[in-house]
Write a structure and sequence with these properties.
Elements lengths: L3 E4 L5 E5 L4 H10 L6 E5 L5 H12 L3 E5 L2 E5 L10 H5 L6 H10 L1 E4 L13 H9 L3 E5 L2 E5 L7 E3 L5 H11 L5 E5 L5 H12 L3 E3 L5 E5 L8 E3 L4 H14 L2 E5 L7 H9 L3 E5 L2 E5 L9 E3 L11 H8 L5 E5 L10 H6 L3 E6 L2 E5 L8 E3 L3 H13 L3 E5 L2 H4 L5 H7 L3 E4 L1
Parallel strand pairs: 2-14, 3-13, 9-10, 17-18, 21-22
Antiparallel strand pairs: 1-22, 1-23, 3-5, 4-5, 6-8, 7-8, 10-12, 11-12, 14-16, 15-16, 18-20, 19-20
Helix pairs in contact: 1-2, 1-4, 1-7, 4-6, 5-6, 8-10, 8-12, 10-12
């Protein structure tokens, strides 16, 4: 089931329910390690990255059980020690187990984490911040060894608002000795969700959702029930697919407030929106207008994870759009596939492309190279005339529970083969 086939040209119509958030679920699953008790995470998405995190938790001694409404993690049996190398290298988010295992066991040995090939993705900010909290790092047969005789609070200033580094400081800080003051923290909604989960477990964190967090270390945490919020990136993907196909749809549970920057851009493309507590109603234009410039930025800016989707939509835009990628330098691997479908895209430098919209895209055989680029090719396939086959879709299933089912609910002719 590695390919997705689409007969495009259908305007999406109807109602679709947005899954739980991948980027919230992964650090919260890691955080469940800290409690030594049972947590039930409702609305946890059934995606490959979550399955990989579950294997890692099991290899560390957690008992994990899927339930109808979510997942139960019992971390009472955690064995401190080495992490299975296989799952750790295939997923960047294994990195948040670094902070969680240090909080729980004060020591961990793990592989250098993998993940999507979208730039160099260094981990220096994680290592420096945790180092300030008393963690000493060394390399052991090519693996990362982290140990803290005394894990303590610190005043940390992140030079770049890294999502992962912010999460690691929080995960290590909630069970450290004393207070950690983190300035320059990332403000992504998934960090707020992690803080809310930890607060339910008894952690003391002030400033969630701002760039200054105060984490007051506690001696222990407790298990809890928590609902994973809806995935703003999946919602944004479907919103932009409606824009590209001229569709109108209701995205149930889509978090309107978290998608403000995306809707601002989509409004300039000619879209109309109505947001409520229940979700977002989207009405796309028959042909998108070209927005002069789209720039990715840390939250609350336009998310890098939706940049490829915006690129796919503007491939049919009425005019020229410049897209500037400011977070990850390798996010333009989707360009080759879009060009095969007739898109006119010129890469002006490593961080910028110029898209000159064409009236219609044409179906083609293309290949997903990473998660969000793969979803963008599927979106382009929905917009295109004729048949598109997207191979390499295991990347897409890392983050989308069932993209084919979701688009079929909106009337698309799409199957996985
Ligand atoms: C997370 C998200 C990813 C999203 C990204 C940016 C998860 C599982 N993944 O990734 O979907 O695209 O945030 O919103 O939540 N950096 C360094 N050194 C470091 C760490 C990061 O230089 O030690 C740089 C990165 O190269 C990048 C920038 O900081 O240019 C932001 O990266 P970061 O926010 O850390 O992204 P992730 O947490 O990996």
């Amino acid at each position: 089931m590695d390919s997705i086939c689409i007969r495009g040209g259908v305007a999406l119509q109807g109602n679709v329910c947005i899954q739980g958030s991948k980027n919230a679920a992964l650090p919260i699953l890691a955080a469940s390690l800290l409690t030594g008790e049972c947590s039930v995470l409702k609305n946890c998405p059934r995606i490959l990255d979550v399955y990989a995190m579950v294997s890692l938790l099991q290899s560390l001694g957690c008992a994990v059980c899927w339930q109808e409404s979510g997942i139960m993690v019992d971390s009472s049996g955690v064995k401190c020690g080495e992490m299975s190398s296989e799952a750790a290298t295939c997923m960047r988010s294994s990195l948040c187990l670094l902070g969680a295992m240090l909080g729980r066991c004060r020591e961990v040995v793990m592989e250098h984490p993998g993940g999507c090939v979208i730039g160099e993705r260094p981990i220096d900010l994680h290592l420096t911040a945790l180092g300030q909290m008393g963690v000493v790092f060394s390399e052991e047969r090519g693996r990362l060894h982290a140990i803290a005789d005394r894990l303590h609070g610190a005043e940390i200033d992140l030079p770049t608002p890294s999502v992962g580094a912010t999460e690691n400081v929080i995960l290590a800080g909630v069970l450290a000795e004393g207070d950690t003051i983190l300035s320059g923290a990332a403000r992504e909604p998934e960090i707020t969700a992690l803080c809310r989960y930890l607060q339910c477990c008894g952690a003391c964190i002030e400033g969630a959702g701002t760039d200054r967090l105060v984490i007051r270390g506690q001696s222990r945490l407790y298990g809890t029930d928590f609902t994973i919020p809806a995935d703003r990136i999946v919602a944004g993907t479907y919103l932009l697919a409606c824009m590209g196909t001229g569709g109108s749809a209701f995205l149930e549970r889509a978090p309107g407030e978290e998608l403000t920057a995306v809707m601002e851009v989509a409004e300039r493309m000619g879209g109309h929106f109505c947001t409520s507590e229940q979700g977002i109603y989207v009405q796309g234009p028959s042909r998108p207008r070209a927005v002069e410039r789209i720039r990715t930025a840390p939250y609350p800016g336009f998310p890098t994870d939706l940049q490829s989707m915006a690129l796919a939509v503007e491939a049919r835009g009425n005019g020229v759009t410049e897209i500037e990628e400011n977070i990850f330098e390798n996010r333009f691997r989707v360009v080759e596939g879009l060009r095969r479908m007739g898109a006119c895209i010129e890469q002006t430098d490593s961080r910028r492309v110029r898209v000159t919209g064409v009236p219609f895209l044409t179906g083609a055989e293309v290949c997903a190279k990473e998660l969000r680029g793969g979803a963008a090719l599927v979106t382009a396939g929905l917009m295109a005339q004729g048949e598109t086959s997207v191979s390499g879709c295991s990347f897409v299933y890392r983050g989308y529970e069932n993209i084919c089912r979701d688009f079929r609910e909106l009337g698309a002719r799409i199957t996985s083969v």
